[in-house]
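call fold(seq) -> tokens
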Amino acid sequence: MAKDVIEGLKPERLWHYFYQISQIPRESKHEEKIIGYIIKVANELGLEYKKDEFGNIVVIKPATEGKENSPGVVVQGHLDMVCEKNKDVHHDFSKDPIKLKREGDYITADGTTLGADNGIGVAAMLALMESKDVRHPRLELLFTVDEETGLTGASALKPGFITGKYMINCDSEEDNAIYIGCAGGKDTEITLAIEWDKKPSDYIDILLKITGLKGGHSGLDIHLERGNAIKLMNRLLWDLNNEVDFMMFSIDGGSKHNAIPRECEVKISLKSDDVEILENYIKRYQEIFLKELDKIEEDVKISYQVLDIKNKTTFSKPFQRKLLNLLYSIPHGVIKKSQQIPDLVETSTNLATVKIVDGKIKIGTSQRSSVSTEIIDIANQVKACGLLAGAEVTQGAGYPGWTPNMDSEILRIMKETYKELFGEEPEVKAIHAGLECGIISEKYPGLDIVSFGPTIIGAHSPDERVFIPSVEKFWKLITEVLNKI
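ret:
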């Protein structure tokens, strides 16, 4: 990958650091190398830092001259990224650098997630560490780990690790919006022991795939009503099961608990005489999905191929019916919209993954809501589906939402600064996604928090891209806010 993709982009040092961290693997729970890089930069700049046992780092930068008595500010972002790629892309997230591409006014990646979530925020924090021309109070640059798979880094923070009065979170994705609230969330996993049967000797094996969906962030994009590959595949199979005597023996859909599934594939066995019926179903459902998802999923594709693997076992027919009924019954999508904030999704659930692990079907789901009791309710609806199927159901502890504070002092400063810089009022919003702000505000009562960032589209999917002009706007706002505090 040529570094000239970012040549000439402003602010130069922010883009320099974004390029550098794009070369470093930083999958959730495997952030060792990016942690090492942050420490290396801190040491080179002669800055004090602390690292806790979970890998969270806070780098302390003293106040610039004349700002020594100003309230301290925490600037926060997370080090990990969602690692998603298209099926036909060969990329090892444990060692391969992200291949950046420039497409007009956007930076994107070549068939993988870009990592602008939260890489742009991290790059801005590194640029602040290095800066000599930004006036600011005492800064605590807080780099957290493992945000994308449960916000566990933020959950592990201990009292006294940070001490600032204000906090700026750099992990939201609209350059004209300041966020002051977010949803809480919970994961529900359903495990079903597979019941196997012998495959009839005259059956052939087929690989059936649904591809081409947009996917996206299960919080930020859930209201767009994009197709869920697991749901679409199950719908086709549930209907086909009423006409054709096929037998499944593999299923693999989705990849991350916080991403809407873009692809799903199953392996089935059936009589060769029934292939024509399968083809008709594929054609029929291809037309149905394109019509139902008109202008949302123009590239959805159903395909199949005959396999030469001579599989000997399949799911039993009773188990197959149970699995198809279970997947059909699990809710997915927007459950309720806010009555207080126009167009804000209040409660949702995502049917995220279905895999075979150690001879069992593992179904991963995630629930979100800005109302704590509604998180419990929708998570229990999903749990009930699993219990009705006789499955084992486990639920995570979840994480809290972040309650909006319209009287926030840092919000007032940011709104005034935004209007001075850009000549218009910013939107003040809550977000239907889990930001670390909820956890951090609970751990550090009285910490006054806002969140903002550049415009990032398609986070958590290979379509992820960042709008180049918004990055300079983001930098101007954060540096001027620090100057005003």
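The chain has a mean pLDDT of 95.
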